Amino acid sequence: MKKQEVLIVGGGLAGICIAIHCIDKGHSVTLIDKGHNRSSVVAAGMINPLVFRRMTKSWRVDNFIPFAENFYHTLEQRTANTFFHPITIRRCIASEQERGFWEDRMKDDAFQAYVHPFDEEDNRVDSAFRPHGTGRVKHTAYVDAEVFMTACKALITQHGEYIKATFDYGNFDAETVSYGNKTYDTAIFCEGSESVNNPLFSKLPVEATKGEILTIKSHTLPENESLNRKCFCLPVGEKTFRVGATYVWNTNNDLPTEEGKQVLVSNLRFLTEEKVEVLEHRAGVRPTTLDRRPIMGAHLEFPNVYIFNGLGAKGYLMGPLLAKELVDHIFDGKALDREVGLGRFF
Fold first, then answer.
1. What is the CATH number of the domain that holds 250?
2. Residue 298 dihedral angles phi and psi, to the nearest 5°
3. pLDDT tens, 20-47?
4. What CATH code is carried by the domain that includes residue 325?
5. What pLDDT, on a 0 to 100 scale, did the predictor assign at position 237?
6. Which is nearest to 24 in space by CA: 80, 66, 85, 74?
7. Among 33, 191, 215, 343, which is 20 to 30 Å from 132 by CA?
């Protein structure tokens, strides 16, 4: 295949994954990012194959999990960094109905890879924090977002061009795929919630969903597993933990709020009665869609202009493989999953 010039707009998780896969195919990459990430760096980077409310598997998780694990491990080796951290998630079961869901899943072959059988510790009941025992999840991890993003941007800089600048839509010609005085073979927009400002894709229903997260200090919470009930409590070393996350729909404001902080502190009471010290409070804006499926594919009028967006709260799980599928679609003609296509909105 002829080496192609690829323009990528947006340097969050989506843009980074696209750039890595394009580089691996031997293409020349120019990534433009304004340097103010509103989602990927703020995220806790949790990888969880289950949806706890009814104990269902996440969409396409059987494909996403092995690909993501290999993707992150390989990038750790390539960048000489450590950012992928396997860790057990322990769910504090909230109701007898939820416990029934767990028991049913343990008998289901489709869940064997993701659900630990109950043991003595799981069945221990505490009226305050584990009223119906606990369940543990396999193939769970977190990605240290800041280390990952920094390492990958350095890798992209070695093999392509990374430009820290605000993208000027008035300077982009979609018909010729040219920006400024340079013409590209392909342009891929990976702008997250800010795609509403892109005249080419502003009609697509990407919603801005705000999430807030705390970093706390605790002397009693376990440091070998991530607890989950009403919130997640993720140990990140030296008795510090990340607690999240809130969901505020339809807002582009990425500033942390006292209200969000109090919601998280209140939810943490379902996991510990310790009065914890809040070390940091951050907020981000996730790109989400109504059907919780990403948006991927070519512009309906300009076949060499693409979008990759809407990864939402499970981006670190889904992003690596979906980016590979889009790159394979663009350069090798492979079909995209019908559930992610732009056609579903028109």
1. 3.30.9.10
2. -85, 150
3. 999 999 999 999 999 876 678 788 899 9
4. 3.50.50.60
5. 93
6. 74
7. 215
